[in-house]
Prior knowledge:
This protein has helices at residues 2-25, 42-62, 84-100, 104-120, 129-132; strands spanning 69-72, 77-82, 136-142, 147-152, 164-171, 174-177. The chain is of the alpha+beta class. The chain crosses the membrane at residues 6-24, 36-59, 91-118, 125-141.
Amino acid sequence: xxxxxxxxxxxxxxxxxxxxxxxxxxxxxxxxxxxxxxxxxxxxxxxxxxxxxxxxxxxxxxxxxxxxxxxxxxxxxxxxxxxxxxxxxxxxxxxxxxxxxxxxxxxxxxxxxxxxxxxxxxxxxxxxxxxxxxxxxxxxxxxxxxxxxxxxxxxxxxxxxxxxxxxxxxxxxxxxxxxxxxx
Length: 183
């Protein structure tokens, strides 16, 4: 059950930047809410939007402690491929959609459909905010020729000596490693 909640949180987090782009495009700002803050520059609202996204991403990272653990033994990885660049074009597509929708109703309709597709996909949890927290995305292939997505702070290059003792399983194809980079 917790895996589904976490998957839903990651899916929403992956789309929050698109919501921010839409809100900025539409110039929806907090200074119109109350006369006392009417003189605030719009940039304050945009910074608050970004801070909310950072907080939600950080909270989702904290939720990983509730997920099941798994491990990858030394010598069991045959291939490591960076996956950051593979996700970026799709993510930029979300931005272009957010810039082109005409109103909030269409935005929520379109992004609800996208959210459903992301939720039911096997490995679409790409969130560029993870980069700010030091994470990278890698495809790893094990000796049984099974390819999975690994979200980790480590810099991976050589598959021979890589060991993960405390992975968090998002699903059977996506794992998150919360350990820091080992010098």
